[in-house]
Amino acid sequence: MTPTTTTAEQPGSYSSPLATPRPHLGHALASEWTKLVSLRSTLWTLGSLVLIVVGVGLLVVAQTGDEDFAQINFTTPALIGLLVGQLAVIVLGVLTISSEHGTGLVRTTFTAAPDRHRVLTAKYLVFSMTAFVTTTLSVFVVGVSAAVVRGGTASGPHAAGEWFGALLGCGYVTLLGVLALAIGALVRHSAGAIAVMLGLVTLPPVIGGMLSMWEAVEPVGRLILRNNVPVAMMQLFGLPEGGDLGPSPSNFAHLALIVLITGAAVAGSYVVVGRRDV
């Protein structure tokens, strides 16, 4: 009698004894989280962010008096460090994707996960949550410390408005990091993407000041001076921009502007990453 051949024994067919679930976004999130926490650049950038925001913030608290907080919020000292610490968020946003292009590991990533849009979505989600939580906790430490040291309170109707503004400020910084990630996806080069982001953050106040010197383009200069990253963050943290530049945009106008710019860059990154070779 001829022995019967099972399906598993037939040539060209194989049934794995291991479970093979259909890939989904959760797998991509786990992969991107592993890559993010495995990089030394993540430790250095986020560590420098916490050190600058908390360190400079506590130093500002130590150099102020109780009467100073009658005019500023308890979260305002964190703004001083965050104006510099935002650069760490920007750098990490760029490195989240450009480091893979620099080493060539992006080919391995897209081979293991052919759905490029899912990979890119996972990168955006993992980075934004990490940056937002780290930034918010750093600001929270400074704000609570200021309230305790200066005999204030971190709760109440007025304090709720202060914390909400600070939370929007942390969201603003996170959006800058997301924009940096999108630029990194478009440029695929760490130094180039970081240079672009530094220009977007630091050059507008300089350009606005220069244009304000000429009467013909003075309105444009004033418009730029009222709409840039430092001014937006100052307003969100309770320090409205003063001077003779005219009425400043509202907090939500600043947020709408950064959301519009970041959204356009993110949409562009999905189009480019899905079409070009790696």
Essential attributes:
278 residues, mainly alpha
Fold blueprint:
Blueprint: H1 25-38, H2 40-62, H3 76-103, H4 105-112, H5 116-149, H6 157-187, H7 190-211, H8 218-226, H9 229-236, H10 251-275
Helix pairs in contact: 1-5, 2-3, 2-5, 3-5, 3-6, 3-7, 5-6, 6-7, 6-9, 6-10, 7-8
What does this molecule look like?
By secondary structure, the chain is mainly α. It is built from 10 helices and no strands. The protein has helices at 25-38, 40-62, 76-103, 105-112, 116-149, 157-187, 190-211, 218-226, 229-236, 251-275. Helix 2 (40-62) runs parallel beside helix 5 (116-149), helix 5 packs antiparallel against helix 6 (157-187) and helix 6 (157-187) runs parallel beside helix 10 (251-275). The radius of gyration is 24 Å and the shape is globular. The relative contact order is 0.12.
